[in-house]
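W.,

You were right to be curious about this one. When I first looked at the sequence I had no strong expectations either way, so I just let the prediction run and decided to look at it fresh. Below is the sequence, 391 residues in total, followed by the output.
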Amino acid sequence: MNMKLNPLTLKFTGESSNFEEPFLKDYYRSSLLHIRVLMILGALLYASFGILDMVVMPEKKFIMWFIRFIVVGPGLVTVLLLSFSSTFEKHMQRILVIAYITAGTGIICMIAIAPPPVSYSYYAGLMLVFIWGYSLIRLFFIWACLAGWVLVILYEITAILINPTPDSVFISNFFFFISANFMGMMACYAIEYYSRRDFFMKQQLEMERENVIKANEELKESEERYRELSIIDSLTQLYNSRCFYNQLKMELDRLERREYPLSLMLLDLDNFKKFNDTYGHIEGDHALVKLGQIIKRCLRKEASAYRYGGEEFTIILPMTTKEEGVIIAERIREEVKKEKFSPAMYEYVNLTVSIGIAQHRKNEALKEFVSRVDHLMYQSKKDGKDRITSG
């Protein structure tokens, strides 16, 4: 997105208009301390030139001091105090314009009071006010221009009507003040422009950072989803055989560091090929899904179930002895046996499982452990199915 600004007021416009309000809030927060310091320094500097009054115009010093110490100085202090109020944010630019015009008008009043050539000594003070107003007190361009040209007009009225200035001096000062005002306008324009540009760039960077964070989160979710897809059996929503071997290896590695009972169960649906041939693979898949749900219901939290392949399922039982595992296996066997499968309308079928279970032996390799449980499961098949064999 490109930054869109009104070339005169420098406000955000068009597609960038939504940045205006947050910019004003940010500008206020970043300017507040700066403004308070400048009000204090401005009041002190304004007061310090009271020494000039005493040197160049001792007979009228009290009038000058009245302007400095009773009007302008307290006015700047009032702005300082207002900056602590809740309404200052809303009216900050208007208040700063009043402070700017007040400070400049004070100098112009001194020029009107002082006789030539003493009055010429106060022109420098007006230049300092221009610098202070245009570049230091955080006035926006449009407000600073308003105040600057008001002061130029007030000076011209004073120099022509109130305290007439020689033509040569007037012409010189006229071009000098006009040039200084234009220089101040350019400086103020640049300050506000770059403040807005920096804010816009910061917001763009923040938006890009949020987009990157969002993209990273989406990537992480995708990776997590991919990981889940790579270890989850899509049919039964149990872990798959690859995950089974990884998890079993982790459990065996853990046993080397800390001994505890670990049992492994392998179960197989009896006569599943006949079921598939009779009712079709879709009903066979339904039966596998239901078996997966039964297994999940029967397990403790620390146990994990896996679809080993086809109609075979494995269950890892950490912190479980063979005897405890047999109890869990019996619960699964009974739940499967009493479950009514309905592969056809008005027809109910009971299925059974053959289960093998064993507890890990010390220093037994992973393949040997799995093979031993596999043999126990097939032993259940040989012994008539719908039973548990442990070893």
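Here's what jumped out at me. The chain has a mean pLDDT of 92. And, maybe more interesting for your project: The chain has two domains: 14-209, 241-390.

Coffee later to discuss?

I.
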